[in-house]
Amino acid sequence: MAVVFEIGPDETFLFDTPGGTTTNKLPDALKDVGLGVGIGKTIQQIYCINFGCNGAYFFSARTVNGNIIRRFNLPQQLEAWLIDSGTNTCRRDIPSLRIELGPNGSFYAVDANSYRWHNLPDALEEAIQQRITPAGWTAKPDWVVLGADGAFIYANDRGGHSYALGNYPTLMSLIQSLHQTSLGGHTGFALVQWISMSIYRPGHFIALHRSGHHVADLHPGATHALNSMAATFPKNPLSPIQPAQPTMMAKTSPPTTSSVSPPMMARKSPPVTQAPAFRPAPHTQASAPTLQPQIVRRPVSHTQVTSPLPQSQAVRPVSYNQQQSNGLARLFSDTASQVVSNVITTEITNATSGGGGGGGGRRREEEGGDLLVVSLYLEETAEATMVELLTMQGQTFGHHCRARRVI
């Protein structure tokens, strides 16, 4: 224990801290404790001290000669649990042994391997029984403190607690405030290093916070001694609970994401990237608009069969499809188109050569005669080509020839 604070009958007390030990009116069997505790002393470390009714006390410590216990007027049940009657030696683990003496022969005793209690207040008995099974503790008690008039404090290592402090109003207010305070995720009795209650003077107690601050209600002599030692009270902070959990998760998750995901994506990304494989798809979609206008323009070109304005050969496929679907003209191949062109050229040549040159041609035009009449059912593409050819020939020979479409 880092500190030991105990209040006994009358004005008896013992305050032991790392900075020193202060005592007052100890029993004669404990006078050597007042000589000091620590290295170079007979008493090197105090494990436990507690005062009970009718002058009873229990004391355990480590000395230069080893671990010892000193006791007086203990309850019979406690004595039987504590001492081997055959050897008259302590059968318990002395460094871990803690004994709390209360009024009316009550006590609570525990060490690293066993526990024993007797005549506890009913509420405390029930709180303990709820946490123990034939297999052992479901939650081990951390604090069992007995006071006057049935007062007690109980807290276990799972955060459960119970207390009755009717004659200790200051201590009651302190405990309530501790349960409303959280430091690093800890609250309640986890924030306390030490609590003692006097079974002789109701309302007297000592409580030491983990921050090293203390709260006490004692008689004047004990208050003065305690305050004079306050600078030596140790601080015993707890590690925060909340930051510890995110740290564990942060250490676990990065290896999972970094070691697995990047290699997986790095290997799969070239095959998954299907842009090269799908490039033909946009290309076929690019040709689709070319097909769709042909379908859309069919009725338009059909209505323009009699129009003299089809000047672009790009319209030929449209007229060809219309003529083929309607059965209005024969299908001309490239060879047939060439034959038509030759015929036209021949006719134009004969017309211009006959009748004595330019004069004859002009005279026949004045007479209203046609130099060339082409009476063929042609595909619209061939017609457009022929009209262009005749027009070109007409421009070449001036007004010597004129083409007329006969349908």
Number of helices: 11
Strand order in space, largest sheet: 1-2-3
Instruction: Output mean pLDDT.
Output: 73
How many beta-strand segments?
Answer: 23
Count of all domains: 2
Radius of gyration over alpha carbons?
Answer: 58 Å
Described by the principal axes of the CA atoms, the overall outline is: globular
Write up what this structure looks like.
The chain is an alpha+beta fold and about 400 residues long. It has two domains: about 230 residues, no CATH class; about 110 residues, no CATH class. The chain is built from eleven helices and 23 strands. The strands form nine sheets. A three-stranded antiparallel beta sheet has the order 1-2-3, covered by helices on one side. It starts with a strand and ends with a strand.
Kindly list the characteristics that best describe this protein.
407 residues, alpha+beta, three-stranded antiparallel sheet, 23 strands, single chain, 2 domains, disordered C terminus, 11 helices
Report a brief summary of the structure.
This protein is an alpha+beta fold. Helix content is 37%, strand content 24%.
Write the layout of secondary structure elements.
Elements: E1 4-7, E2 13-17, E3 20-24, E4 43-51, E5 57-63, E6 66-72, H1 76-82, E7 83-84, E8 89-90, E9 98-101, E10 107-110, E11 115-118, H2 122-129, E12 132-133, E13 136-137, E14 141-146, E15 152-156, E16 161-164, H3 169-179, E17 182-183, E18 186-187, E19 192-197, E20 205-209, E21 214-217, H4 220-228, H5 244-272, H6 275-278, H7 280-303, H8 316-326, H9 334-353, H10 357-366, E22 372-374, H11 380-396, E23 403-405
Parallel strand pairs: 22-23
Antiparallel strand pairs: 1-2, 2-3, 4-5, 5-6, 7-8, 9-10, 10-11, 12-13, 14-15, 15-16, 17-18, 19-20, 20-21
Region (Disordered): 239-288
Biased composition (Low complexity): 252-263
